[in-house]
Design goal:
Blueprint lengths: L19 E5 L9 E4 L4 E8 L9 E9 L2 E6 L5 H7 L17 E8 L5 E16 L13 E7 L2 E4 L16
Antiparallel strand pairs: 1-6, 2-5, 3-4, 5-8, 6-7, 7-8, 7-9
Length: 175
């Protein structure tokens, strides 16, 4: 039987989506209280062309690649990081207050197994906040956590292929 696991050949179930963290690549600080990260998606345009010598089909080649926005959601706390980051793009004080040097950040998205080992790592390059939901709909008839949300535009992302399958029998490293 073929398995997608080498070190943990006994494992038959794929990884779950509920254990992850996002860190600032500059200082390694974990963005706190994240509850959801949207999918990482890239799309490469198809350039069709046809030779004029009578071929009855199109040839195709790759064109520009675009990277979809990534949305981060978290429970509202007193951590001002999302709002401070969003304010670097267009603060209340006007365009002259925009932080052109600091509004883009590189991030590291780490997916973990149930035990907490990092199993996949992605680098998100030059992320900046294009949308900020500071407060959700408030509804006295619900019983849910208040969520704030930022939508990030990224220039690219890269899967860290150096992240190896962990030995699930080993201890989880700190950090």
């Amino acid at each position: 039987m073929v398995s997608g696991f080498v070190k943990n050949a006994y494992r038959i179930d794929p990884y779950k989506t509920f254990k992850f963290r996002v860190k600032d690549a500059t200082d390694g600080k974990v963005l706190m209280a994240l509850t959801k990260v949207s999918t990482l998606k890239r799309t490469t345009e198809v350039v069709k062309f046809r030779e004029g010598n009578g071929l009855s089909h199109d040839s195709k080649s790759p064109g520009r690649t675009t990277y979809e926005s990534v949305t981060l959601e978290r429970g509202i706390t007193h951590d001002p990081d999302f709002e401070q980051w969003a304010n670097k793009v267009h603060p209340y004080g006007g365009d002259s207050m925009m932080d052109l040097a600091g509004y883009k950040r590189d991030l590291i998205l780490e997916m973990m197994n149930e035990k907490g080992h990092v199993v996949h790592r992605y680098f998100l390059y030059k992320a900046w906040v294009s949308e900020f939901d500071a407060l959700p709909d408030l509804d006295a008839n619900t019983n849910v956590v208040a969520i704030e949300r930022i939508k990030l535009e990224i220039e690219s992302w890269e899967h860290d292929l150096n992240t190896q399958e962990p030995d699930e029998k080993s201890d989880v490293p700190v950090g």
